[in-house]
Task: inverse folding
């Protein structure tokens, strides 16, 4: 029964928040903070002490059941959620003082935590699908928060893409139910080994499922919603791009590939080459689009488009090494990218500046913020020994081990993307530190514009995590390899 707590606690707590008398900001912050911290502690206990456990099946029909389970892959995603959500909430307490309708915002923000936990702990494809749909519904009000024309348009695009993707994923669920083991349970190695179904049909449906879940992972050509939702408040975009939505899509692809369809009927076929080509192209495409974008948050959004497909590339390799690289990048990118978005949000709140050309010289005005931005940028580029280098090296090594066209395309895409990432991040940091402040922007001179401690504490914790992970690459890789070899 412990597994249900991290799902229900934030959902019930967030729903109650909408009706409780919490108009006082301090009281609301304590309420949200306690629920979020307590939920992360429960997740941490499950991750560390409970091993592989599962709830009993709650039957919906003869073959469809609701089931939660903590296994190796769940533990990886849950660790990311448990670590980042309290930091994001603390950051949001400060950021949202500049926005309206805070109580409504934090209600959905808290509910989304529980729904994301439901995805991480889903024990079968049906449960994953239910929470996948609920994630769209719980995050849509966050995208729409400002309720201006741009936000409404972004919300509409987000909804259309998400619903369409879920429809494709639904087809995959039906196929696994029909030709699998009689239910949609996740099994290491997949459930279709030895099936009598037409292999061609299985491969077609797998590609459809990859694209369906890949919508939230912003794979080309289904990426357009992600840059648009940058209009949402930064605490929303930070979680959308680092944890909740996009990582849920990548996580679902890993589940479907290694625990649903399995790789036996897919490796070496046109289906593998198709999804691999889509991932490799998206890696380069997203980086190129980021390079040409001048709005800082949208530049980071296109960067997310690229980096999500690093995870999908590992899934498409369909090997334990590729799986290991995917899990590494899912963890590292989540921490690095939320740090970069936090920095962008701090700049917006403290100075009102959103465009790259407007923040030159900000290293003198916001020294702590821009130092953290520089460290996170170096990590995302893949400067050794920072975490981005570790995960990219693991993915490149996995591609080389496969050999042939996969090695050439995979390593080529990773190298090109790394160069482009340096080109779209380092000039931002360099201009902030080495160019003079743009005087006509009327930024307050001689005053430190770094944010308050509710933003600075997440900055410091995330920056420390990035540095510490640089020294934990070996043990972490070994731990994730043991999970991957279990497939």
Result:
């Amino acid at each position: 029964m412990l597994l249900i707590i991290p799902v229900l606690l934030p959902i019930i707590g967030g729903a109650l928040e909408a009706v409780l008398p919490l108009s006082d900001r301090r009281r609301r912050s304590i309420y949200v903070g306690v629920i979020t911290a307590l939920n992360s502690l429960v997740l941490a206990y499950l991750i560390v002490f409970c091993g592989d456990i599962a709830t009993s099946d709650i039957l919906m029909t003869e073959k469809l059941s609701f089931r939660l389970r903590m296994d190796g892959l769940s533990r990886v995603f849950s660790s990311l959620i448990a670590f980042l959500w309290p930091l994001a909430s603390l950051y949001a307490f400060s950021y949202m003082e500049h926005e309206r309708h805070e109580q409504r915002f934090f209600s959905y923000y808290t509910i989304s935590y529980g729904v994301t936990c439901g995805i991480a702990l889903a024990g079968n494809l049906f449960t994953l699908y239910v929470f996948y749909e609920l994630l769209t519904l719980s995050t849509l009000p966050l995208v729409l928060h400002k309720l201006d024309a741009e936000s409404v348009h972004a919300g509409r695009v987000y909804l259309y893409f998400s619903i369409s993707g879920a429809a494709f994923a639904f087809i995959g669920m039906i196929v696994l139910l029909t030709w699998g083991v009689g239910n949609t349970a996740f099994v290491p190695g997949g459930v279709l080994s030895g099936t009598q179904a037409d292999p061609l049909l299985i491969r077609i449906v797998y590609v459809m499922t990859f694209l369906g879940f890949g919508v939230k992972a912003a794979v080309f050509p289904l990426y357009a919603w992600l840059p648009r939702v940058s209009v949402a408040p930064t605490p929303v975009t930070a979680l959308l791009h680092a944890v909740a939505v996009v990582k849920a899509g990548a996580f679902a692809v890993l589940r479907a590939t290694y625990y649903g369809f399995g790789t036996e009927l897919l490796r070496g076929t046109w289906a593998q080459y198709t999804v691999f080509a889509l991932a490799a192209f998206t890696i380069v495409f997203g980086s190129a689009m980021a390079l040409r974008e001048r709005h800082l948050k949208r530049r980071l959004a296109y960067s997310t488009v690229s980096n999500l497909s690093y995870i999908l590339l590992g899934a498409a390799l369909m090997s334990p090494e590729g799986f290991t690289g995917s899990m590494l990048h899912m963890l590292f990118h989540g921490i690095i990218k939320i740090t970069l978005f936090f920095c962008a949000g701090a700049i917006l709140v403290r100075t009102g500046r959103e465009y790259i050309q407007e923040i030159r010289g900000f290293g003198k005005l916001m020294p702590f913020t821009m130092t953290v931005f520089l460290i996170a940028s170096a990590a995302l580029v893949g400067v050794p020994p920072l975490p981005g280098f570790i995960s990219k090296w693991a993915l490149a090594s996995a591609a080389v081990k496969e050999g042939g066209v996969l090695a050439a395309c995979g390593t080529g895409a990773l190298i090109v993307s790394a160069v482009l990432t340096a080109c779209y991040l380092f000039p931002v940091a360099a201009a902030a530190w080495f160019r003079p402040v743009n005087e006509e922007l009327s930024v307050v001179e001689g005053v430190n514009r770094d944010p308050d401690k509710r933003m600075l504490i997440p900055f410091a914790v995330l920056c420390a995590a990035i540095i510490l992970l640089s020294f934990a690459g070996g043990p972490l890789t070994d731990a994730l390899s043991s999970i991957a070899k279990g497939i």
Observations:
- Strands lie at 53-54, 58-59, 65-66, 69-70.
- The CA atoms of residues 53 and 70 lie 5 Å apart.
